[in-house]
Amino acid sequence: MTKHLKILSILFYYLSISIVNAQFSPSLKNYTLAEYKAGNQNWDITRAKNGKVYVANNSGLLEYDALVWKLYQLPNKTTVRSVLAVDDIIYTGSFEEFGFWKRDDFGILKYHSLSDTILNKISPNEEIWGIVKYKDKIIFRSFLNIYVYDFKSIVQLKSDSILISLSVIDDDLYVSTLNAGIFLLKEKKLAPLYFNDLLVDTKIISINKYKDKLLLMTSLKGSYFLEKGKLVPTNFKINEAIKLHQLNDFSILKNGEMVFGTIKDGLFLTDHLGNLKFHVSKENGLLNNTVLGQSLDDSDNLWLGLDNGIAHIELNNSNYFFNDVSGKLGAVYDIIEYKSVIYIGTNTGLFRLDSNNRLEFVEGSQGQVWDLTIIGDELFCGHNEGTFLVDTNTFKKISNFTGGWTIKKVPERNDTYIQGTYSGLVKFEKKEGEWIVKQFDKALIPARFLVFENPHTAWVAHETKGVYKIRFDEDYETILNVENYQKKGISSNYNIRVYNIKNNISFKTSEGWQKYEPILDSIIPYKLLNDKLGRHNYIISEDDTNLFALKNNDGFINFKSFHNNDEQLILSDDLLKNRYIIGYENVSKINDSVYALNLDNGFMMINSTTPSNNRLQKPKIEVVSIGGVPINLSKIVNNEIRFNFNENITIELSSSKSVNHYFEYKISNTGNLWYKAENDKIEFSNLKDGESTISFRAKGNSGNVSTIQNLEIDVLPPWYRDTFGFFLYAIIALLIIALLYVLQNKKIAKEQHLIKIKYQKEQEKLLREKTLENEKQIVEFKNESLQKEIKLKSKQLANNAMALVKKNEILEEVKKDLMGHKEGFNSQYNFKKLLKKLDNSIVLKDEWAVFENNFSQVHDEFFEILKTKHPKLTPKDLKICAYIKMNLSSKEIAPLMNISHRGVETHRYRLKKKLNLENDISITDYLLNIK
Question: What residue intervals traverse the membrane (predicted)?
């Protein structure tokens, strides 16, 4: 029965501490398998003085320089079980193997085996599970043996019992065994120190100095003090938890606080008396509940090697988180401390933390909580459903006006307050112990931001319509005037925030800070705040305090004071960015030094006296590669490197003690712009020849920068701009000059020959031109003679035609006379025979053929052109065309055609139509000029 009661009490205790403390945790950052890209199990972890973290991983040795994870594998590719960084050397233990890693002259981390020198002593299947530095020696521990390395040789020490742990205290090395108790290392021998039956079959995780006693931490039996040869259980309240969850690693901070890493339930952090402060497990952010290894660095930063993942916890930071593991809390909008109780306003309702930090829901408060404000000794809750008074067990509505965003006291008036709601401004006034609530009938606009300029003037910011200036009457019974400043200088009308900063009405817009200028009655840029706060920063805390919180678009928060130009505190944790309530970030003042930042599913408690951990370490050049081949760093003189033109240079950087940073670089001969590096390696190609300086710096997410690291480079000119090139150019120039001289002489001789030929050709050309000119003159003379002959023949032809006409006219007259004397003929037969002869003489077809032949000779191709252009012309048409071509009149043509004058005119008219001539074109002109 007693045994069962004991088990139940242990379970009850564990359950109670889980409920009480599971919500709070220090700042935690996890590194997943996807990030470090190695095995899931991380057996041991250590941090070197230079800031680099080394992890004993299933796949090998992991190195983290605060920016990039790198994996180094052992030659046999076995699991690394233990690791210890001593100065710049990393010692590791593995399966039948141990040794150290050291960077060579090229900056490459190389492994050097120590176990190879004692292969005959290594036990089969032996693994090195622990490494410690003791005086001027390095001690390696397996379950069977201890190996002492003094940097010259290795001494093996065997044990009759299984070796569990090594602990160095002052100048002593304590060796804990499973069944034989505790030993001391004395001159390369194990000397018994203490044995107790209680320690039989007990895993002593570590032995530490606790005040003037030895503190023994066991895996399943809790903790004990060893003092004056006696083993006494401690009264640490954490004992039951670590027994239940199997302690696996233990550390003590500089301030005496203790860290317990367990196999089953993550990490427990206690004060120096063993009282629990934080419990960090998978429920509140840890990737895995099995802590395989842990390490405290010089700044009390805790690094954890987990069964699946790696974690970093800032134990030296007094800021801590409240995380809701149930998911009921939702998005937090406001936090306040009232009567020593923390109240949390969320989108699901109002919660409070009791004295044991348990989360309790305030009954009746379900819905969106916007604002929590203490007025007098009462707590006001601005709610989606109205405004409520909050007490320990009550949630009393005093206003039905929905959406209480903000409430402000009226200056110089007691018990009068103005609240901004969904539907405008509401007055709260306390009379005879009761709150009287009244809505103003003007300015019925959503008012999330409200500030007072003076006792009777307030400013309200609308989400999309800019800002309004509100004037109240003397007794605050009504609003006298509402003036919209949308067109009075405000740079943007969207998402404006309004503040009263040092009696200046100030506005934060998307374009920067502005302020109201009463003399101009206008809104103007506010240079002071743009310079001091930043154009893109906005205040997320009360604006009437000396220390206020600023939120930047990049996601970090810093605290500033108008009385001190130095930033008091910077929060640049990358984990916060994913938990902000965007647009509704709020920092609430809990007391003079503690603030609360609202987050999704929780909040962060901030101690403003905590020094900012934003100092960045000067970048260190780890490896320099030219053309992909690392160079010997020891041969770099005065940080200057010389290499050939067109060779690429790759520089690997580290800034291991910096947090939340990246690297930037610039080249002196390309301007003053800094460029962001994607990771720790920066490659430069196509650099100009000559000397230049490459500058590197680490830059934090909050905008802070480190000291600059410079690297002088001298890019040798290409061969064609080097001495050999210039010598070759000189030879080529001489050859070219000689060649040009020879070619010039040849050219002169050739030109002289060409000139001679040219003159000969010109003489021949002149002779040919003279001959051609003479021939041309002869041709002209012939043409003139032919023209004269044509004119003569034309005249002859015309004369023949006229003679023919005259002949026909005479014959016609003779015929006419004969016809008039017909009766005088005795023989009609003779008369008719005579007429027939006359008719034949008048027609004379043979004469027309002769005429046509002569006409064709005079007017060459006339009939051909006419027949080609007008193929439908009849022979009669061609005749009349010929007569017209000879410039004969209709009267002269009639006898030749043996038709009347009118018949000729009629024929000319028809001919004009056949030739398709316009009315204004003469047929005579057309035929005379036809071509």
Answer: 724-743
Say which residue the tokens 């002088």 belong to: 712
Question: Which residue in the block uniquely carries the two structure tokens 């002489």?
Answer: 745
Structure tokens at 807: 């002949």
Strand 640-643 and strand 709-715: pairing? parallel
How high is the pLDDT of residue 843? 53
**Residue 130: what are its φ and ψ, rounded to 5°?**
-150, 145
The conformational region for residue 167 under phi > 0 = left, psi -120 to 50 = alpha, else beta, is: beta
Task: State both tokens at 123.
Answer: 């036990």
Give DSSP secondary structure letters for 527-553. Answer: HHHHHHT-TT-EE-S-TTSSEEEEE-T
DSSP 355-414: TT--EEE-TT--S-EEEEEEETTEEEEEETTEEEEE-SS-EEEEE--S---EEEEPTT-T
Q: What is the CATH number of domain 620-717?
A: 2.60.40.10
How far, in whole angstroms, is CA 640 from its chain's centroid? 33
Does the pLDDT value for residue 578 go beyond 90? Answer: no
pLDDT at position 181:
94
pLDDT tens digit sequence for 227-237: 888 999 999 99
CA dist list (Å): 913 to 862, 874, 879, 917: 19, 13, 16, 6
**Cβ atoms of 332 and 603 closer than 8 Å:** yes
Residue type at position 624: V
Q: Tell me the C-alpha distance between 619 and 483, whole Å.
A: 56
543 DSSP β-pair partners: none
Q: What is the pLDDT of residues 771-799, one digit of tens each?
A: 888 888 888 888 777 767 766 666 666 66
Query: DSSP for 264-324?
Result: SS-EEEE-TTS-EEEEE-GGGT-S-S-EEEEEE-TT-EEEEEETTEEEEEETT---EEEE-
Q: Which residues contact 242 (CB under 8 A, 6 or more apart)?
A: 217, 222, 223, 260, 262, 268
Average pLDDT score over residue span 128-147: 95
Write the pLDDT tens digit of every residue in 632-690.
Answer: 988 888 888 988 888 999 999 999 998 888 999 999 877 789 999 989 999 999 888 88
What is the phi/psi pair of residue 847, to 5°? -65, -35
Does CATH number 2.130.10.10 belong to domain 24-158+235-318? yes
Each domain of the chain, given as residue ranges in start order, spans: 24-158+235-318, 425-439+451-535, 620-717, 723-843, 845-930
